[in-house]
Amino acid sequence: MNRLSTLKSLLGGVLLLSASTAGADSASATIPVFTSKIAAARTASSPGGTTVTRAEMAGALNSSFIRDMSVDSQERAYLGAQLGDATFLKGLTAQARKYATDFYELNDAASTEAPLSLNTVAGATSDLFGATGALSRSARVMEGYIPNGQGVANQVTLSNQYTLFFGGGYDSPLYFEPINPRELTERLKGQIMYGTPSLDEVDGAAAYVNEISRNSARLYVADWRTAGRGGPGDGGGYVVAAVSSDRRFVRMLEVLVWSE
Predict the structure, then answer these.
(1) From the CB of residue 240, how many other CB atoms can be counted at a distance below 10 Å?
(2) How many Cα atoms sit within 13 Å of 65 on the Cβ side?
């Protein structure tokens, strides 16, 4: 068994264990946490007032259902019922509703990933972005597709296949969460390993990523940390995944933010 197959088996076991553990306490732990967070977001003293904002929805979902790095079938069924409930949807901004819908689609409680194969994109990142600078020096790009009829790009597929194909012995669990084009641009503008990206780089990278997802608006981001990347010590950063409308083609842009 090769290294990729061994790591895939280990990751699959971890995800299955997490899912079974989460399923045992969803009703008594994670679901009440989510409902309490949403109730707090609806109060007049919350950041969005009585309206639930995108940031508040993201905070509620990520601090409850995703806190054990997986969403089980009970949690997903509950969220699906809420998204079909007019009372729950009342007072949510359009972006808050979109975040919840995208989160629900991404976290489909699957325990086995689809066969997504990722390959390094030919050409320098500076050519892909149309500009040279800190971002092109700090970035790697890979892309690939899932064969027709063999699944879709969901949480377990993106997380497992990113870890397998980008490599480097990732030592911190990671999960993807939905972002929108504005949030993508804000990420790309931030200080990274080799300095601050130029505006031309940011625009070029955003356009390159959005080229895949523009018809579906399926954009996701995850933070990562690992040993031996960018130097002799630890390194960390983020990875953006853009998914096509049929959820079969994926383009990933990884950015190195820091290294020791």
Answers:
(1) 25
(2) 29
CB 219 within 8 A of CB 178: yes
Amino acid at 46: S
Range of weakest confidence among 22-31, 95-104, 146-155, 208-217 = 22-31
Q: What type of residue is 71?
A: V
The tally of CA atoms less than 13 A away on the side-chain side of residue 43 is 7
**Do residues 71 and 33 make contact, with C-beta atoms less than 8 angstroms apart?**
no
Smallest CA-to-CA distance from 37 within 77, 96, 80 is with 96
Adjacency order of strands within the sheet including 117-120:
117-120, 139-145, 249-259, 234-243, 218-227, 177-179
pLDDT classification of 117: cutoffs 50, 70, 90: very high
Structure tokens at 248: 């079969």
Residue in the block written with tokens 């009829």: 149
Length of the chain: 260
Type of residue found at 193: M
Q: Tokens in use for 69?
A: 């790095």
- pTM recorded for the entire structure: 0.87
